Amino acid sequence: MIRVLVWNEFYHEKNHEKVREVYPNGIHNAIADFLRCDDITVRTATLDDENCGITKEVLDETDVLIWWGHMKHGEVSSEATELVKQAVLDGMGAVFLHSAHHSKPFRALLGTNCNLTWRESGDSEVLWVTEPAHPITQGIDRFFTLPNEETYGEPFTIPTPDKILFLGSYSGGEAFRSGCLFERGNGKIFYFQPGHETFPTFYDKNVQTVIRNAVRYLAPTCRVHVDCPHVRLISSDKPYVI
Ligand code: ZN
Fold it and tell me: What does the pLDDT look like over 208-220, one tens digit per residue?
């Protein structure tokens, strides 16, 4: 079984009627609902939980973390940020959705400010598959269309991704690296751009397929904490690690 934790700041859904209409139980539960299946178990956590719902114990029992945040990035503690970063470095998978490009864990893992160009005008978006043989793009045609999304545009100030799996193009003219893979330490990270809170993006079957594929691809085969030991000569009769 792959153990997923879906983290959502869960602010818009409680404070904006338009968002509540689209996601009455919160974005985290919408994602959890389509992910739960024979080989995936799902828990959720939100900013309102103690320690933002992020503890070492919780992450030790998480194979893949999914993160959605927007307005409250600053309220995620440094401790939670460091715990997520270390878990990824040890091997946990992480999916950062939409406005999580500015979340503290994403920026901590990538090391740049992760800025982008944006506009809320309800453009339609075409997501083009750039890696048709990659596990995350299986079940997706050459492209798929979302009738409305928030427009994200280049430049996107991330480090060069290890792979770009999707390019987004918008009816307003912008283009964006909408699906990006990174490796950090022993862990894999997938950034996926769709998911603006006022649009029903997480009910889209193609979006659901991509996120489900990503969970299976990012799940670690093992987790190893790599430390920095002080050692003796190999020829010593004492234990190698001091
Ligand atoms: Zn948005």
Answer: 999 999 999 999 9
